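ARCHIVE CARD
Drawer: 12
Card no.: 0347
Subject: one protein chain, sequence and derived structure
Cross-reference: see card 0346
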Amino acid sequence: MLPPTAKPYLVRAIYDWCLAQGHSPYLLVAVAQPGVRVPQGYEKDGRITLNINPRAVQSLELGIERIRFSARFGASSHQVEVPYLSIVAIFAAETHEGMVFGDPHTPLGEAQPAATSEPAPEPEPEPSPDKGPRRLRLVE
């Protein structure tokens, strides 16, 4: 059965592009999602970054529903399983080019709040055409 989302195909395309460019493909994964299997203690702020370069992993499977591989964390080998729903981004480690899918906790179509500590500035009212040219003013 084919997946209801394009994400597996997009992840594979960015993965292939990274390798063709000689870059290391990295995944940013939300670890709290169902089905995620990663070693404990390596996540930060509920996310983990995984190097999926063929030189860094063993038995890599880019399946239709999830990505599986074996990798060394510290001195021991671990089986890793990442459902596509949990993938926040895939990017080249060297250039940070890639694709961001967004937070899996935010439903599609809902705006994600901007991370800012200041309130958004009030928009300037549009001058009417009969008031003449716009003037610049200093905002402090």
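Annotation on reverse: The mean pLDDT is 83. The CA atoms of residues 23 and 95 lie 8 Å apart.
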